[in-house]
Amino acid sequence: MSQMITKSHVLQFNTPAFLGNAEQCGQWRTPPFKHLLREWWRVAWAEKNPPSDWRRMRETEARFFGHAWLENDVNGKGKRIASRKSNLILRLDAWRDGTLNALPRTRPAAQGAPASALYLGYGPVKDAQSLKMSHPVDEGKQATLRLAYPNGLPGAELMERTLALIHAYGALGGRARNGWGSVTLKGVNVDEAPPPLRNWTQCLREQWAHAVGGDETGALIWTTRQSHGQWQQVIEELAAIRKSVNSLCPGRDRAVLNQPVGGRGGRVPSNLRFKIRRNGDKLHGVIFHMPFSPPSSPDTRTLQQVWQRVHQFLDGHEAVRRSAI
């Protein structure tokens, strides 16, 4: 039997997290954390392998995380199997219920726009202060996350990098791409998590988010110049920036940035992601671009023109500056 590698980290939320159970009540649960691990494990895999070889990635992922679909898998005796239990053991020290009753009031994202929390949290957030989900997990709450997996198993060598990427860029739950559910893994240093960089125009050759984009200036990462003591202040800053970015691209170009379910051509998830990081007792916002070409996206030239406009806007924005991480 292979020796087991064990990891233990205290995970803390920097913003409220919309993690729901079957009754849509907020609760600490392991499935969203496993999803988060798989998401960033794939990015770690693409750092060492051609991102176009996604079929091989999915097979390695299936054998490490478990599956019920892989047709060419075999057990230790060489017998074909239709499913495999996960080799990753994941535990939370407690499955506690969420405690957040209402959101603090936030300023509008722009003149005439909705409150910032609603603008970035539409869906789980009902209006300026009310929530559709019952009792999300509140900011500042923490739990111990424990992992165990066999040493030497293909895919296991990527777990250390996966945890570092989650600490630097990860968030989970509803509206995680907008900064909700931003996490800190205590014991992981963000300075030890350089971004998984790839030239952003090359990223557009793929249909999945596998790297942080880079250009001739460096990583397409921007951090807010100002740090804040309360998460809602960072949400206000990020919402105002998101509103301005969306206003850059009217008409058909708007769908390049993101498009909700039911939009013309199908849903287009945003390439531009937000994260809220903790530094001591202060919080600041992070904006990073993970470029890809959704199946329903326009031609590559249009994608490049729209995103160049966004990059130039953020480079000139007084509230943010470029960051290496």
Topology:
Elements (H helix, E strand, L loop, with lengths): L3 E10 L16 H19 L5 H12 L23 E4 L23 H6 L20 E9 L8 H11 L13 E3 L11 E3 H4 L8 E3 L6 E4 L6 H18 L5 H4 L14 E8 L2 E8 L10 H16 L4 E3 L3
Parallel strand pairs: 5-6
Antiparallel strand pairs: 1-3, 1-4, 2-3, 7-9, 7-10, 8-9
One letter per element, helices H and strands E, the order comes to: EHHEHEHEEHEEHHEEHE
The total strand number stands at 10
Distinct helical segment count: 8
Give unreliable regions as ranges: none
Give the total of domains. 2
Q: What does this entry look like structurally?
A:
It contains eight helices and ten strands. It is of the alpha+beta class. It folds into two domains: 1-49 and 58-100 and 135-193, Alpha-Beta Plaits (2-Layer Sandwich); 194-325, no CATH class. The strands form three sheets. A four-stranded antiparallel β-sheet has the order 2-3-1-4, with helices on one face. Strands 8-9-7-10 form a four-stranded antiparallel β-sheet, with helices on one face.
Brief overview:
Helices cover 28% and strands 17% of the residues. With 325 residues, it is of the alpha+beta class. The protein folds into two domains: 1-49 and 58-100 and 135-193, Alpha-Beta Plaits; 194-325, no CATH class.
Key terms:
325 residues, 2 domains, 8 helices
